[in-house]
Structure formats: structure tokens, C-alpha cells
User: Fold this.
Amino acid sequence: MRISTIGGSIFKQTLLLALLPIVVSCHFGGSDGTSAVNPEQERLTRSCTIDSLSLRTILDPDSIEGWDHLNSLSAEAWMLIDDSTGMIISQKYANEPKFMASLTKMMTCLLALENGNPTDTVNITDDVFITKDSRVRLGDGYLLDNLIYEMMLVSDNDAAYALAKHIAGDTLKFCDMMNGKAAYLGMNSTHFSNPNGMPSPDNYSSACDLVKLARYCMRDSAFAAIVGTIEKDIPLTDGRHMPCLNTNALLTNYEGCFGIKTGFTRQAGNCLASAATRDGVTLYLILLNSRSMSSRFTESSILLDYGFRVMKAYKHTLLYEAS
Assistant:
């Protein structure tokens, strides 16, 4: 492994950056014992911090095993980061707007959780039964919480329309909410024009923006529980049940994976938002426009494996330089 030469001042700055999340998590308070840290501001800061420089001041990630395999991946764009520091481990066209397919539903799920009542009844009516390629059927009724699960596990398009109408009154107002939240998160290369990611020239994002969204969403415990669920029997209000199996195969075949969301349209290709943790390291990956349904999982696994090797080398280098 080749290690970049670094000066003492650069090393100290990088070490402080690596320790910053630990310091922040201590919630140092004022003299009256109250917390001086606003929990929402901390969540926003942690989720949206993207550091493109620090990793390469410590080591050369291109020297880590598996780097040479990344050039052969079919995905059009990706971003892989370490969650605790926000350091970019690998990226490809990560700031270019791309179609995102059902990764859109991460925002729909977030807004439904933030603005909905879990025990509300949501009905599948004519004006939300649009794509008709979904598991829900006209006339079905669900509790809002159960419909969110159904939407995220099987990527149900009409469920997304039903949730949007229930939360905002109509889809256009819900899209305004989506774009308002995107602006709040600093997703500057993003625009939402529907709640489910169906083909539209005005529904797009970047891998970098979607990393911010994914990290923010996963800091909502309800969201994380939903996207980490492998299978669930979804009850309808009339007593029937719908068995749902999560479309994210990494939940069962990649060690440490705990989310997040699949996506596919012909326009966007095969997409995947992933989160995985091993040995105290948590990685987030957005992969856009992979060649096939299977390759999005294979290529995400390759990138995550590489990321964990990079972070292991990074930690070892920090310890060596500090000794």
C-alpha cells in the first residue's frame, strides 16, 4: 500500500476532522446544564457534510485492493462515503444530474413520516390509481404507516401517489414539499416532479444529493426500520393481508447492509441506495444507471467492499502517524 507524504499540520487537521463527530455527539452544554446543540441542526450537519479532500491527505485510495476493478463497473454515476466523517471514498460523475427512478421514494417516505398520522386511513382512489403496475388496487384501504411500508418494500408507484395526496391534498403541492425539503438539505442538483420516480424530464438528482438525502432519512429511526425490513405482512383495512418482500437483495446477501432503496426505469436504468456497517464503519452508497437488475447489487457490493478496505487502511494510517 502506498501512503501519501503528509505534513504535521495537515495530519493534525485531518485527525481533528476524524474526531469531530465524536466531539459533537457529546452534546456539550452551557453552564446551566442544558444542551448547546440543536438536534435537528446536528442531524442536518452530519447528513450534508461531504468532504472531498481529507482522505487523500492520509492515503492514496487508488492504491487499495479493488480500485482497479472500479473502472469496469457499468454504473453511470455513484458516490461512496464514510458516514462518520463525510469523506468521499469513491465517486463517478457524482455531481451531475441524473434520473433517479424510485430512489425518489426516499423523499416521499420521509415527508409522509414527518407530516402524516400513522393511524390515518389512506384509500386507493381513481385519482391515485395511475400507473396500475402496482400491488395496491382501486378501492383498497390501508393505515398510513402500513402503506408506507408497502411502498418502500415493493416500490409501489400508486402507493406513492396515494400518500402524496393524503399528505398534501394533491400531487403538485406534495412536489412543492419535496422540492422545499431538497432545498433545505442543500440538494442543489435536484428537482422532483412526482412522488414515485416514474419517467419525467423534470425528476432528477445527483449521486451527491441523494447521499445527503439518504443520510438524513436514515437518521429517522422509523425510516431506518422500514427500509431495513426484509419482509412484512401488510394488513389492509378490510382484513386482507398483502405479503411484501423487500426488493433490496443486499439486505439478505451483503453482510452489514441495513438499507435503503432500489430503483428502475428505462430512463434511469438500475439504481440502488445502500447503507452498510462493519467494524464500527458505516458507508453510504448511491449507484445510478447500472446495466441490469443484478449488476446494481453486484457493483454496489464491489464498491462497498472497496470502501471498507479503504477505511480500514485509513484508520491504521491514522494510528501509525499518531504513534
